[in-house]
Amino acid sequence: MAQAPEPRPRSAPAPSATIPFVGLTGGIGAGKSEALAALERLGAATLSTDAVVHELYASPEVRDAVVERWGPEVGADDGVDRAAVARAAFASPADRAWLGGLLWPRVGARIGDWREELGRRRPPPRAAVVEVPLLFEAGMEGAFDATVAVVADEAVRRERAGARGHAALDERGARQLSQEEKARRADHVVVNDGSLRDLELKLSAILAKLGA
Question: Which of these three, 101, 124, 147, is where a domain ends?
Fold first, then answer.
């Protein structure tokens, strides 16, 4: 899957007094998706910004805008060719900024609607967790009550990323902070070096610290 372009910082919806709002991030292959799924099993509500972007690419409004800018070669039967869009967007800062301006206000609106819906749930979820791969790169950490970085051994990350077809790991990784820097900036760090059960236990401890 093509990585989502860099989000632009925006004002977050008003924080909930009862549902911790958590930003989840990590390097390529560290296991963010595994962590997000584990948090859902632990009773948190979860949302992936990559998944939201995927949905947006399937919408006629976004597809038409992307094709108008970069031509029919970025189109596809189900919306857009995300790999082709990523290549076009990262060709220049102007293209990257344009795509971010197209997508991220819509992503922010989706997150706002989601949080409003969560506030009506009874019982409420233990936490509201949003996976944002470029959380710190975009300066979005201030939008959350807490941030969590998932890290893993470099060899493990490369094996996981390679298995998913991430041939351009070095190129994509160069556009991100190192996982050490992500860990330094995060409120909580999870080392994903064991079983799924180990991961769940570590994440459960973080939820407990958040009062969730």
Answer: 124
The Cβ of residue 83 has, within 10 Å, a number of other Cβ atoms equal to 13
Specify the number of domains making up the chain.
2
> Which residues fall within 8 angstroms of residue 14, CB to CB, at 6 or more apart?
none
**92: containing domain:** 50-124
User: Is position 14 within any domain?
Assistant: no
Residues 116, 185, single domain; the answer is no
What pLDDT tens digit does each residue of the chain (212 aa) get? 344 455 444 444 444 458 999 999 998 889 999 999 999 999 999 999 999 999 999 999 999 999 999 999 898 877 888 889 988 988 888 998 999 999 989 999 999 999 999 989 899 999 999 999 999 988 899 999 999 999 998 877 777 666 655 554 554 555 678 999 999 999 999 999 889 999 999 999 999 999 86
Q: In terms of domains, do 212 and 137 share one?
A: yes
Cα–Cα distance for residue pair 20/16, rounded to 1 Å: 7
